[in-house]
Amino acid sequence: MKRARTRGVALLIVLWGCTLLAIMLGGFAALARTEGLQARYQFAQTRAHYAAEAGMVRAIEGLQTTDPDARWIADGRPYVFVFDDATVNITVVDEDGKVDLNAASDQVLTGLFKAAGANDDKAKSLSAAIQDWRRPGDAASPNGAKKPQYDAAGLGYGPRNGPFATVEEARMVLGMDPAIWTAVAPVLTIWSGRERPNTEHAQPLALASIPGLGDAGAAAILATRGQANGASVAGGNGVTHTIRAEAILDDGTRSFLTSTIRLRGIRSGNQPYAILRWREGDVE
């Protein structure tokens, strides 16, 4: 009787051991599967990332090619580049076709904000606040904003009283709400030094900021640009461009890169471009 009881206990222990072993093996299998999926995802993301980087390099080569008929045009038109099993969609925008936060006139800034949906008063106050941010001194301009106005709004900072250091800094300007920022961000720059955008490369919203141009004038420019000979349009490219590359693998994996670069020309021993800004992910 005692021996049978001992055998029963031993059998129970063996059964519990087998059950525990099965649970552990199941856990290890699930962990291995999860790690395998993560590794596969990371590998796909890495491939997509480098495909997007290849698109960046292809765009730079297209901008600097000595063949005028093959030279890429920096006005936002799409280019498609195939790299291994990835399709890379690329756009190049010349920075001189944007509104320069440090150089744009009051009329251009006001026109930009009106085109982005602000009413007259809001557009004028934003234009004045932009100018006060970049202007030295403590006295606010009419409708503008210096430190006292930021304090009154409950903000813990004031204007730089100097040039904008980044495009994103404009988000901090008094009165800049998310909707307006989202609309204008793609056409803002700090690298053109121009009082008004260059019409050869400007996007529709930037064109709308130019005083006296009007909807009809902007439409005529865009239509003419679309019909112009590629070589003649590309010949007007500047030296500072924002390149956006989206790489898509066959399995749907995507990677986005946005870079602002300044071309230096193709000379022996010289880096052909300098990177001014580099962003990863689907952001503006």
From TrEMBL:
Asked if the record carries the keyword Ribonucleoprotein, the reply is: no
Residue ranges spanning the membrane: these are none
Question: Which is a Gene Ontology cellular component entry for this protein?
Answer: plasma membrane
State the UniProt keywords alphabetically: Cell inner membrane, Cell membrane, Membrane, Protein transport, Transmembrane, Transmembrane helix, Transport
Compartment(s) of residence? Cell inner membrane
Query: What family does the database annotate?
Result: Belongs to the GSP K family.
Please identify the protein, giving its name as recorded: Type II secretion system protein K
Q: Which organism is it from?
A: Luteibacter rhizovicinus DSM 16549
Q: Recall the taxonomic lineage recorded for the source organism.
A: Bacteria, Pseudomonadati, Pseudomonadota, Gammaproteobacteria, Lysobacterales
